[in-house]
Amino acid sequence: MKESIDFLSTDRILKAVIDTYGIPSIPKREQGFAALCHIILEQQVSIASAKATYKKLENELGQLTPKVVLETPDEVFRACGVSRQKTTYIKDLAQRVTSGSLDFESFKTKSPEEITTELLAVKGVGNWSVEVYLMFCMQHEDVLPIGDIAIRSAIKELYDIHDPEEMRILGENWKPYRSMASFILWYHYLSKRKRKDHL
Question: How far apart are CA 128 and CA 45, in angstroms?
Fold first, then answer.
């Protein structure tokens, strides 16, 4: 971590964020099916809301496995606060794992590009979901999720950059530690708003 912080501290704006709020903790999630289900639930809602929904599912179904998901009626998901659309996504994911077309275990020996290609084939899984999985679950060091609202907002506030392509160009300066830069940006966004959400 020290190496990435030293490198990113050459960016005076990121250094100012670190000086103001401290070094962000790096969250680590389990890899696999349940983790991606959680990320799907996080799409376009707050962290707290997604956590609450995931907790309801766990309380209702126990451990989230492909078998359990496929055997559970859609109405149960709806009762737990999962939208019809996200229920479809989670069941498609479960079907792919069950059929063997998606093997999370194999990700340990695959490149981020290969993992991205496989996950994007899952219904409802886009770039943001893949990037979050790579960062939080697989701990890849060089990911910048430009599609994330908080990341975009932080870059707008700190750098006065509004165009997504220009944001990507800015991110080139943070290679090979764009994930840590993202965590710093998230930390700025949440801390400035005094949000208690934990990544």
Answer: 13
CA distances in angstroms from 180 to 48, 93, 119, listed in the order given: 22, 29, 23
Alpha helices, DSSP H, located in 9-46: 12-21, 33-42
DSSP 8-state code for residue 151: H
Q: Note if the bond before 66 is cis, omega within 30 degrees.
A: no
Closest CA to 31 of 83, 93, 105, 122: 105
List, for residues 30-78, the tens digit of each pLDDT value. 999 999 999 999 999 988 999 999 999 999 999 999 999 999 999 999 9
Domains of the chain, CATH where assigned: 2-26+144-192 (1.10.1670.40), 33-126 (1.10.340.30)
The three-state secondary structure class of 157 is helix
In 3D space, the residue among 80, 74, 123 whose CA is nearest the CA of residue 102 turns out to be 123
pTM of the full predicted structure?
0.90
Integer-rounded Cα radius of gyration of the chain:
18
Kindly state the tokens that stand for 113: 């590009």
> Does residue 199 carry a pLDDT above 60?
no
